[in-house]
Design goal:
There is one protein chain. The two termini are 29 Å apart. This protein has two domains: 50 residues, no CATH class; 149 residues. Helix 5 runs antiparallel to helix 7, helix 6 runs antiparallel to helix 7 and helix 8 packs antiparallel against helix 10. The chain is built from eleven helices and no strands. Bound molecules: iron/sulfur cluster. Iron/sulfur cluster binds next to helix 1.
């Protein structure tokens, strides 16, 4: 039988930006996503919900078979057990919410959103158009800058909430980690992997904000305060998860890409 080219578990520690992922053809989630027709990807389209329900039905059958093969009865739990684990999860999650990393992550979302919703970019682009019209700069130069700004905005928007979500998850994972998790080497502990993708997202966002600041000197003060917030978040994550960088992400750290 031909060896599968798929990378097991790659989607657990990625940034979920499938459109830009170099491993989309080797990831079960990426392949499933690409298999949906553009019609099926339309959230308002009946075909989308049909495709979603079909893939869930398939996943459920596979899960059931895998559980049986491993002698696990997924239906064997009591209401009390369920309630207890729900309470545990809520407690851990609430604690993570109150953690300074998450609080700063939330402050970053608010500050970032406020800036993105301001007229700063609109004014900048209007100014660039005026300069082109007045012959102060070339059309090509105006377009290049417009595209660079657009690129920075896409990166910032993609990671704006993702940083909080992954930081929160890393904190709940480490709080829930048991002896078995800590017997694994740091390169395989899931919370390190989650913290690593949070840190990668922070770094990419920092770069995008810094580029924006360079192109929009009039926004320097506002962007600097956002950059300071992100840098603080980066340091806090590094301090809380000092072994994050040693985690080996399947595909991204094993295949010499990305
Ligand atoms: S590994 Fe790539 S293709 Fe798979 S879910 Fe993550 S971003 Fe998408």
């Amino acid at each position: 039988m031909a060896k599968s080219n798929m990378i097991s578990g790659i989607h657990n520690w990625c940034d979920r930006w499938c459109e830009r992922c170099p491993f989309v053809s080797r990831c079960a989630v990426g392949v499933a996503d690409a298999a949906l027709s553009s019609e099926a990807k339309d959230m308002n389209n009946e075909a989308f919900w049909k495709a979603l329900s079909d893939s869930f039905a398939k996943a459920f059958v596979m899960l059931d078979e895998a559980a049986k093969a491993h002698g696990i009865d997924i239906n064997s739990f009591s209401e009390e057990e369920l309630e207890e684990s729900r309470r545990d999860w809520e407690e851990t999650s609430e604690q993570a919410d109150k953690h300074p990393i998450c609080q700063l992550g939330m402050d970053y979302i608010k500050a970032g959103r406020e800036w993105l919703e301001s007229d700063a970019v609109k004014h900048k682009l209007e100014g660039a158009i005026r300069e082109v019209e007045m012959g102060i700069r070339s059309i090509a130069d105006g377009e290049r800058e417009g595209l660079e700004i657009q690129e920075c905005l896409e990166v910032i928007q993609w990671y704006l909430h993702f940083i909080y979500v992954k930081s929160h998850r890393a904190l709940t994972e480490i709080a829930d980690a048991n002896d078995y998790d800590f017997e694994l080497p740091p390169s395989e502990r899931s919370h390190n992997g989650t913290a690593k993708i949070a840190l990668i997202s922070v770094e990419r966002s920092l770069n995008a904000w810094a580029l924006l600041m360079d192109m929009m000197p009039g926004e320097e003060d506002a962007i600097l305060s956002i950059l300071a917030m992100l840098q603080r978040l980066q340091r806090m994550l590094q301090a809380e998860f000092p072994e994050a960088q040693s985690f080996i992400r399947p595909g991204f750290d094993t295949e010499g890409k990305a």
